[in-house]
Write a structure and sequence with these properties.
The protein is mostly helical. It is 83% helix and 0% strand. The protein has helices at 2-30, 34-54.
């Protein structure tokens, strides 16, 4: 029976840790202004475009 008790405690700890991570991520997202979000999206688009231009799909 001790095994089940430890598994339950480990499960609760995992759920609590996940909640902390989600709450921290949510706080970070809510602190961003619309201009910050737009700038990040443009940066990601530019990175993706540069990577796509650097690859050669279908050749070889």
């Amino acid at each position: 029976m001790k095994l089940w008790k430890w598994l339950g405690v480990a499960g609760l700890a995992g759920v609590a840790a996940t909640g902390v991570v989600v709450a921290r991520d949510q706080r970070h997202r809510t602190q961003m202004t619309p201009d910050d979000v737009r700038a990040r999206l443009h940066e990601r688009l530019d990175e993706g475009t540069a990577q796509a231009e650097g690859t050669t799909h279908g050749e070889g």
